[in-house]
């Protein structure tokens, strides 16, 4: 089993989910008493938020790359960035560190392709929804991503950082997210990507009529495949 290096703290809430799902997934595949081999580097969320607010991606890259180098020096064989937005710098990290970075958008695109869908809604931080790093990887597999209107994008972005990332899941916020998904479905979205690793803790498949793609669970499955592969 390969040793995985997890980059977390963005937020600690979803990083805890990564750790739980990773161990449960390995155990499900291999049986007792088998669990994941992994290292976790967890940032202070406030440091990342401050850089996000300035969109200082170079500074974020340097922090993440340094953490990944710690993992590499400790024996990690693959990197898991435990946040969708962090994948904006994933290619740079892989080049700097020289280890495979298991890309959340690639794994999500494959899950959508297997489901036979070609048009999906994308919910996440403003960076994930508006920048190209996620949507381009979907498009390369023939998948179109549609994003919410401006006011809805602002609501999602604000609540991710102000509520979900601190473990605060409010019924009113959930209702608004579901309304946004319904609106995008009415406009042709066949499914919806929960493209922030905290959103699957707020919205469940049982809440929606269209298929949901939980990027946390999908990413963890890809990490397990890597860890247990040849």
UniProtKB/TrEMBL annotation:
Keyword Glycoprotein: no
Domain of life: Bacteria
Keywords, ordered alphabetically: Isomerase
Coiled coil: none
Single GO molecular function: amino-acid racemase activity
Secreted listed as a keyword: no
Pfam families according to UniProt: Asp_Glu_race (PF01177)
Family, as annotated: Belongs to the aspartate/glutamate racemases family.
Protein name according to UniProt: Aspartate racemase
């Amino acid at each position: 089993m390969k040793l995985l290096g997890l980059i977390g703290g963005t937020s600690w809430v979803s990083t805890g989910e990564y750790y739980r799902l990773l161990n449960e997934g390995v155990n499900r595949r291999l049986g007792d008493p088998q669990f994941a081999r992994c290292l976790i580097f967890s940032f202070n969320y406030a440091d990342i938020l401050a850089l996000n607010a300035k969109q200082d991606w170079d500074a974020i890259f340097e922090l993440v790359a340094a953490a990944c180098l710690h993992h590499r020096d400790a024996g990690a064989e693959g990197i898991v960035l435990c946040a969708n937005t962090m994948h904006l710098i994933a290619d740079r990290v892989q080049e700097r560190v020289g280890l495979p970075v298991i890309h959340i958008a690639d794994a999500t695109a494959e899950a959508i392709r297997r489901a036979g869908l070609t048009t999906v809604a994308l919910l996440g931080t403003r960076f994930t929804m508006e920048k190209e790093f996620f949507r381009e990887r979907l498009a390369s597999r023939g998948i179109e991503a549609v994003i919410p209107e401006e006011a809805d994008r602002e609501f999602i972005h604000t609540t991710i950082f102000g509520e979900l990332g601190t473990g605060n899941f409010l019924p009113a916020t959930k209702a608004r997210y579901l309304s946004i998904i319904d609106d995008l479905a009415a406009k042709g979205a066949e499914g919806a990507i929960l493209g922030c690793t905290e959103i699957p803790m707020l919205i469940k498949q049982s809440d929606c009529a269209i298929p949901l793609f939980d990027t946390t669970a999908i990413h963890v499955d890809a990490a397990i495949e890597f860890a247990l592969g040849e």
